[in-house]
């Protein structure tokens, strides 16, 4: 039988607005913690002068201040040695006023990134990049464990994947049982997101640069999440009518405009829900970082 899809008005997944709501909740939590003499502290480490990283880091610090997290900033020269950076991480690990450590990636080529990540105390690893935390995430259990900081569950949800799940949840988009297709297999987004979605009961396909016939895969998605850094990779003919589309890409065009990996203007006529760029996943990522810093402060003091 011929099925006819009737287009309803697309829902724009307003990550900026939802992140503001979360920040209000976190602000109240921090006020309560303050009554017990505790102020969460986040160390933000930036190496070099990559313009995009500078903007992200400044954004993270501004958001910390907005909710009452104390941020300590370390801006280091591009040519800093591996051992000097390791020394800083070691000092931050021992600093009682620092509960979260964020080293902005990518690091310069001469730095062994994985060694730096592994030097961070897993209890302060608010990015959830340390193998111990990444492993806990893969082994699973629910996101509830993370927010409770249970010993056997992940301590934190990684910021971007956690932000995507929260965006879906607060937009009343059910994940359990859904066909989810992720485009992109990075350690920051694609891989941990796949683990989170599986734990949440979704059926997950992960596509990447070697995937054959990408369109055939993306058309199967009831929830399509794209994190490739390729502007306009996903066109309207690659999207299942009525699906939810989450765009993680942030690409700066020659005219200075920011766009995602999804052709927003055309895909919004096909999808039932879509996240914009900017104002979609980006603010949710930061909200999750703030949440993780509070979780770290609570765990370290209990
Ligand atoms: N670079 C791009 N995204 C991220 C992130 O979520 N955390 C860190 N530390 N670096 C990044």
Largest sheet entry? 6 strands, parallel
Q: Under CATH, the topology of the domain at 161-282 is which?
A: Rossmann fold
The overall pLDDT, averaged over residues, is 94
What is the string of SSEs from the N terminus onward?
Answer: EHEHEHEHHHHEHEHEEEEHEH
Q: What is the CATH domain class of the domain at 161-282?
A: Alpha Beta
Query: Can you list the strand order of the major beta sheet?
Result: 1-11-8-7-5-6
The DSSP helix count reads: 11
* Alpha carbon gyration radius: 19 Å
Shape: globular
| Poorly predicted runs of 5 or more residues | none
Number of strands: 11
**Helical amount among residues, as a percent range?**
40-55%
Hetero ligands: guanine
What would your notes on this structure say?
With 302 residues, the chain is of the alpha/beta class. Among the domains are: 37-124, Leucine Dehydrogenase, chain A, domain 1 (Rossmann fold, 3-Layer(aba) Sandwich); 161-282, NAD(P)-binding Rossmann-like Domain (Rossmann fold), CATH 3.40.50. The protein has eleven helices and eleven strands. It has helices at 15-35, 51-67, 82-94, 113-119, 131-139, 143-148, 159-170, 190-199, 214-218, 264-267, 281-301, and strands spanning 11-12, 41-47, 70-76, 100-103, 179-183, 203-207, 223-226, 244-247, 251-252, 258-259, 273-274. It has a six-stranded parallel sheet. The protein has a three-stranded parallel sheet with strand order 3-2-4, sandwiched between helices. Helix 1 packs parallel to helix 11, helix 7 packs across helix 8 and helix 7 packs across helix 11. The longest helix is centred in the N-terminal third of the chain and has 21 residues, at 15-35. The mean pLDDT is 94. The protein binds guanine. The site of guanine (GUN) has 9 residues, from strand 4 and helix 7.
């Amino acid at each position: 039988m011929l099925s006819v899809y009737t287009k309803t008005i697309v829902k724009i997944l307003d990550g900026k607005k939802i992140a503001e709501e979360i920040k209000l909740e976190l602000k109240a939590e921090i006020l309560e913690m303050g009554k017990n003499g505790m102020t969460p502290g986040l160390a933000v480490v930036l190496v070099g002068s990559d313009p995009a990283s500078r903007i992200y880091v400044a954004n993270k610090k501004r958001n910390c201040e907005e909710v009452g997290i104390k941020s300590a900033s370390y801006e280091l020269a591009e040519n800093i040695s591996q051992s000097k950076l390791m020394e800083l991480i070691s000092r931050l690990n021992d600093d009682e006023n620092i509960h979260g450590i964020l080293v902005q990636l990518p690091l310069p080529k001469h730095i062994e990134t994985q060694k730096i990540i592994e030097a961070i105390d897993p209890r302060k690893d608010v990015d959830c990049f340390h193998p111990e935390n990444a492993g806990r995430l893969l082994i699973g259990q629910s996101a509830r464990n993370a927010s409770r900081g249970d010993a056997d569950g992940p301590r934190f949800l990684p910021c971007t994947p956690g932000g995507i799940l929260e965006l879906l949840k607060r937009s009343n988009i059910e994940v359990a049982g859904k066909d989810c297709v992720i485009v992109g297999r990075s350690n920051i987004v694609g891989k941990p997101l796949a683990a989170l979605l599986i734990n949440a009961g979704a059926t997950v396909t992960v596509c990447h640069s070697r995937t054959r016939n990408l369109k055939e895969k993306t058309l199967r998605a009831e929830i399509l999440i794209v994190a490739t850094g390729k502007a306009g990779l996903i066109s309207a003919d690659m999207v299942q009518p009525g699906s939810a589309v989450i765009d993680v890409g942030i690409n700066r065009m020659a005219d200075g405009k920011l766009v995602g990996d999804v052709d927003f203007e055309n895909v919004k006529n096909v999808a039932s829900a879509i996240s914009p760029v900017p104002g979609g996943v980006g603010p949710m990522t930061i909200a999750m970082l703030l949440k993780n810093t509070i979780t770290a402060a609570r765990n370290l003091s209990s």
